[in-house]
């Protein structure tokens, strides 16, 4: 006799279980790193909606999302409350609205899954895993996208991390959802041999995918230094403090001239426009660094003649014509641009300093420094690997400048570091990640930490990285494997629907 979901629900209300399952999901990510929970938590949701009516399933999916995002992105409250000057109650309300909106994605998943319900085996091994991955993909691009807590990112440091360079984030998420469906089917004691085989195939296949070495060293080791100035966020945009900020970063960098071939500063380490500071600080600094055999890439805003301005990473040069620029392409809504001007009335969180940045062009050339080609990203651009692939091909190294000071001592810096490590692993390139107040890190091409800074301290992080050549399957083909798997599963669903 098969086990039904009734036994799961006799002791708890289903809605409470859904909320609790959602709270489990963020524990699969950094800093907790209980990665099996990104399989277990969706499996619980799958069980809760397998026999539910569409409206009931939708509610349970929404509660699951509310728990997941309410805990997993709780750091949004820190940014709004501490730096938005909205007051605690309004900050809490805005955070709740944001999380409630994100919860609509698992609610949509649950509603569609209930509407299209097939047999339990077909729903759990075909329909739900496919829908789960497609909804995650939708969340990653709709309304500029928000890919935080995508299960694929949790695979760093897990036995399944080989799925990332093979299939990418979304392909890995699809296989994790397939494992969730198989686990749910085992709970129901239905199609035990099939479910066991699928679960074993995902786990063993994920482990085996990590055995090949997709890329190889391409050049000599590069000595690098990351400068973490630890400037308090409230002082960062103060004109009165700008000279002190410049002095701090310049003096810390000078300590590594002649020792580090490349020196990297974080996003908006300085908040004076490049053109206003280049002649009297930056070009002389580049010349001084070059005399010692060092080069600098720094983060600061860049203004064009027409008045538009960008958040940028700049390779300094004594000759203006030789400087290199990368302008951030994927901007943060309400932080770096305001999509709906009337929303400014909700509070100063939507009227931050320099909150009208322009996005950079899609086809920017790689930065070149220390004899290498480097693919740059700024802040949470590294959470959108698909958008970076074209820029990464043909480069040997990733650099990222970030500013996690907005989120204080929360989950965000740890989650963001995990995202950066997942990107490095997926594309087979080492990454240099400089942040304003931590966690700065030197990451190798397998996503492993070579060096990392403490948080909330001034620090210089020294190390070496090997430039890498070659391409992982994900870097070469992008989401082709994910789309192929999704297409095969979709054809299977279509065939079953026609048969029925």
Looking at the structure, what is the overall shape?
globular
User: What is the rounded Rg?
Assistant: 24 Å
Q: Which sequence of strands runs across the widest sheet?
A: 6-5-4-3-2-13
**Average pLDDT score:** 92
Overall strand count: 14
Termini gap: 25 Å
Largest sheet: 6 strands, mixed
Instruction: Identify low-pLDDT runs.
Output: none
Helix content: 40-55%
Structural class: alpha/beta
Strand content: 5-15%
What is the number of helical segments per DSSP (H or I, 4+ residues)? Answer: 17
Kindly summarize this structure in a few lines.
With 500 residues, the chain is α/β, with parallel strands linked by helices. It has helices at 6-9, 14-24, 37-49, 54-72, 75-83, 88-102, 104-115, 120-139, 163-188, 192-209, 233-236, 242-254, 274-291, 385-392, 412-427, 473-477, 480-499, and strands spanning 216-217, 222-228, 262-264, 295-303, 309-315, 324-327, 367-369, 372-378, 397-402, 431-435, 441-443, 449-452, 459-465, 468-469.
Task: Please characterize this protein's 3D structure.
With about 500 residues, the chain is α/β, with parallel strands linked by helices. The chain is about 45% helix and about 15% strand. The chain has helices at about 5-10, 15-25, 35-50, 55-70, 75-85, 90-100, 105-115, 120-140, 165-190, 190-210, 235, 240-255, 275-290, 385-390, 410-425, 475, 480-500, and strands spanning about 215, 220-230, 260-265, 295-305, 310-315, 325, 365-370, 370-380, 395-400, 430-435, 440-445, 450, 460-465, 470. The strands form 3 sheets. Strands 6-5-4-3-2-13 form a 6-stranded mixed sheet, covered by helices on one side. β10 and β11 form a beta hairpin. The two termini are about 25 Å apart.
């Amino acid at each position: 006799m098969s086990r039904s979901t009734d036994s799961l629900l006799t002791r708890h209300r289903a809605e409470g279980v859904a909320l609790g399952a959602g709270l489990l999901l963020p524990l699969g990510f950094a800093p907790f790193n209980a990665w099996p929970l990104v399989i277990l938590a969706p499996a619980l949701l799958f069980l809760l909606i397998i026999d539910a009516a569409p409206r009931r399933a939708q509610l349970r999916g929404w509660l699951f999302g509310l728990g997941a995002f309410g805990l997993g992105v709780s750091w949004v409250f820190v940014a709004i409350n501490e730096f938005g000057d909205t007051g605690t109650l309004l900050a809490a309300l805005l955070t709740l609205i944001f999380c409630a909106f994100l919860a609509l994605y698992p609610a949509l998943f649950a509603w569609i899954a209930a509407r299209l319900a097939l047999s339990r085996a077909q729903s759990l091994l075909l329909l739900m895993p496919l829908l789960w991955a497609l909804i995650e993909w939708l969340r990653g691009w709709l309304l500029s996208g928000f890919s935080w807590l995508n299960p694929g990112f949790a695979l760093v440091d897990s036995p399944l991390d080989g799925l990332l360079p093979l299939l990418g984030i979304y392909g890995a998420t699809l296989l994790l959802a397939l494992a969730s469906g198989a686990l749910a089917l085992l709970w129901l004691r239905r199609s035990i041999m099939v479910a066991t085989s699928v679960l074993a195939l995902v786990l063993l296949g994920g482990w085996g995918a990590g055995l090949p070495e997709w890329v190889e060293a391409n050049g000599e080791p590069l000595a690098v230094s990351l400068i973490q100035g630890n400037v308090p966020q409230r002082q960062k945009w103060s004109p009165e403090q700008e000279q002190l900020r410049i002095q701090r970063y310049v003096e810390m960098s000078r300590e590594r001239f002649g020792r580090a071939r490349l020196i990297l500063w974080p996003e908006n380490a300085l908040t004076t426009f490049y053109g206003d500071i280049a002649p009297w600080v930056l070009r002389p600094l580049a010349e001084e660094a070059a005399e010692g055999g060092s080069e600098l890439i720094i983060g600061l805003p860049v203004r064009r003649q027409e008045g538009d301005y960008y958040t940028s990473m700049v390779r300094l040069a004594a000759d203006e014509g030789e400087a290199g620029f990368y302008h951030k392409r994927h901007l943060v809504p309400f932080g770096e641009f305001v999509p709906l001007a009337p929303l400014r009335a909700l509070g100063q969180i939507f009227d931050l300093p320099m909150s009208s940045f322009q996005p950079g062009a899609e086809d920017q050339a790689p930065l070149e420094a220390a004899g290498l080609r480097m693919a740059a990203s700024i802040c949470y651009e590294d959470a959108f690997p698909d958008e970076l692939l074209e820029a990464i091909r043909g480069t040997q190294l990733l650099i990222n400048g970030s500013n996690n000071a907005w989120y204080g001592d929360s989950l965000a810096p740890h989650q963001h570091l995990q995202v950066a490590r997942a990107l490095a692993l997926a594309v087979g390139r080492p990454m240099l990640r400089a942040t304003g107040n931590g966690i700065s890190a030197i990451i190798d091409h397998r996503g492993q930490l070579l060096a990392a800074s403490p948080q909330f301290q001034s620090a210089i992080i020294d190390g070496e990285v090997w430039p890498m050549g070659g391409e992982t399957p994900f870097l070469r083909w992008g989401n082709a494997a994910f789309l192929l798997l999704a297409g095969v599963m979709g054809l299977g669903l279509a065939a079953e629907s026609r048969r029925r």
